[in-house]
Design goal:
Strand content: 25-35%
Pathway: Lipid metabolism; Sphingolipid metabolism; Steroid metabolism; cholesterol metabolism
Largest sheet: 9 strands, mixed
Signal peptide: 1-25
CATH superfamily of the largest domain: Glycosidases
Domain Glycosyl hydrolase family 30 beta sandwich: 455-517
EC number: 3.2.1.45
Structural class: alpha/beta
InterPro entries: GH (IPR017853), GH30_C (IPR033452), Glyco_hydro_30 (IPR001139), Glyco_hydro_30_TIM-barrel (IPR033453)
């Protein structure tokens, strides 16, 4: 708790508990329509909509939470479980004996840009924004991805070891972006969260003097070979980063072997990257990163390979994980969503899981507005909310154990971003008015992060006939059931749910909606 108050003092939030009262129940969305299909919910220093702390009704009843293009935002409802079927129509049957993966968590990234935008707000609005993500009244984020040094969502190019030839990393130092921005915000978020946050570190580029192209950007990889001087120094850079953050009581659950290694193999790539082939990544983990981490005080930190688009699977996993020397240091495979339309999930994620079931699959980056055909911020876009929900359901149904959004907050242009690679975010900040908007994608994330607790286990669901509904079901650690449903069609779809343990739930999914149903079984 001491770390929380230190962070509060840095942010000017030390006495906010006397000024801001967390909502104990459901507060309604203050909707604004910017002409992109639906509304955003506007928040300021004193008010923000919230579903509040959720508790389920007693057995024999169910809870529902609805978000829709028409404007519902986690709208709560309740109904009775029936003992008899209505007969006919669509039925979704829960199959509890079909058990799959367990959930790790959901979250977003504390980039330099996210920190800049959060800190551009007043102390009260900062508190509101972070509560929305991390408090028990918020949507239950438990994962935060932290870039190691700069990425495109920074305002400048830097690493922590920019002194040429510093192979012993004697001049390694965190940046002011870490010390004055990201670390205080992470400490504050941890203070709001009812459980320890899972911090995930990803590096974009090694220092330029270690690289074949002598630059942080573009096509380039580490000089020399795995086991050599540059590769060992790069592994120690990771250890130094973990040690420096630990001084602020921030420990990392996992690190990745580097953001999008395929990007560093592309000619004329415009921002920070470090190229690795799967063979090079395999040998670097086996000879350098794995042993260095194992010998450090951070030996329990998980190692996730790939951290790139899933179309590289299962080939990348085969190359790295078939090697016993690399495989023993690795815990999981990290995937991004940007090329998901090019390869079916069952061929990439599903095959990888079945080949290597002892390694978990984890979604580490996704955002809307990245495509040149649909670029930047669109306030109130419902189509993007559906893209999120579709991808998360597809990932969950193919053994992924968590899903991490990209920037926690951006400005109205989708930045700052030094290379003008502007994208969208679930939270958009308007610093001049001291307000922020919660996008429909924020609620897409909420339908999963709020209800799928850590340890929730996916179970089977079978449909009685073909349907436009997309769905996934989980049994939580307390034996309650959560069923998440996406209706991307323009029609209301009536259906019933049969849980053999409790009975029948009769309900409907409005056109263009997300629906979370939850009930106790005992």
């Amino acid at each position: 708790m001491a770390a929380w108050w230190r962070a509060a003092a840095v942010l000017g939030l030390a006495f906010l508990t006397a000024q801001v009262t967390p909502s104990s129940g459901s507060n309604k969305c203050v909707g604004r329509n910017f002409g992109h299909g639906s509304v955003v919910c506007q928040c300021n220093s004193t008010y923000c909509d919230s579903v509040g702390s959720v508790s389920l009704p007693p057995p024999g009843q169910f809870a529902s939470y609805l978000s829709s293009m028409a404007g519902s935002r986690l709208e709560p409802g309740q109904g009775k479980v029936q003992m008899n079927s209505t007969g006919g129509g669509l039925r979704l049957t829960i199959v509890p004996f079909q058990k799959y993966q367990k959930i790790r968590g959901f979250g977003g990234a504390m980039t330099d840009a996210a920190a800049i935008n959060i800190l551009s707000l007043s102390a009260g609005a900062q508190d509101q924004l972070l509560r929305q993500y991390f408090s028990s009244e918020g949507i239950g984020y438990s994962v935060v991805r932290v870039p190691m040094a700069s990425c495109d969502f920074s305002t400048r190019l830097y690493t922590y070891a920019d002194t040429p030839g510093d192979y012993n990393l004697e001049n390694f130092t965190l940046a002011h972006e870490d010390i004055r921005m990201k670390i205080p915000l992470l400490q504050y978020a941890q203070g709001l969260s009812p459980q320890p946050l899972y911090l995930l570190a990803s590096a974009w580029s090694a220092p330029a003097w270690m690289k074949t192209n002598g630059a942080l950007t573009g096509k380039g990889s580490l000089m020399g070979k795995p086991g050599g001087r540059e590769h060992k120094t790069w592994a120690q850079y990771y250890i130094k980063f973990l040690e420096e953050y630990a001084k602020y009581n921030l420990t990392f659950w996992a690190l990745t072997t580097g953001n999008e290694p395929s990007a560093g193999q592309m000619t004329n790539y415009s921002f920070q990257a470090l190229g690795f082939t799967p063979e090079e990544q395999r040998d670097w983990v086996a000879l350098d990163l794995g042993p260095a981490l194992h010998a450090s005080s951070s030996s329990r930190t998980h190692v996730l390979i790939l951290d790139d688009n899933r179309l590289l699977l299962p080939h990348w996993a085969k190359v790295v994980l078939n090697d016993v020397h690399a495989g023993r240091y690795i815990h999981g495979v990290a995937v991004h969503w940007y090329a998901d339309n090019f390869v079916p999930a069952e061929i990439s994620l599903g095959v990888t899981h079945h080949l290597y079931p002892e390694y978990y699959l984890f979604g580490t980056e996704g955002c809307a507005g990245w495509s040149p055909l649909d670029r930047g911020v669109k306030l109130g876009s419902w189509d993007r909310a559906e893209q999120y929900a579709h991808d998360i359901i597809e990932d969950l149904n193919n053994y992924v154990v968590g899903w991490t959004d990209w920037n926690l907050a951006l400005d109205q242009t989708g930045g700052p971003n030094w290379v003008k690679n502007f994208v969208d975010s679930p939270v958009i900040v308007d610093a001049k008015q001291d307000i922020f908007y919660k996008q429909p994608t924020f609620y897409s994330m909420a339908h999963f992060s709020k209800f799928l607790w850590e340890g929730s286990q996916r179970v089977g669901v079978s449909a009685s006939r073909e349907t436009d509904l997309e769905y996934t079901a989980f049994i939580r650690p307390n034996s309650s059931v959560v069923l998440i449903i996406l209706n991307r069609s323009s029609s209301v779809i009536q259906f019933e749910v049969w849980d053999p343990a409790v009975g029948y739930i009769t309900t409907s999914a409005p056109a263009h909606s997300m629906l979370t149903l939850a009930w106790n079984t005992k």
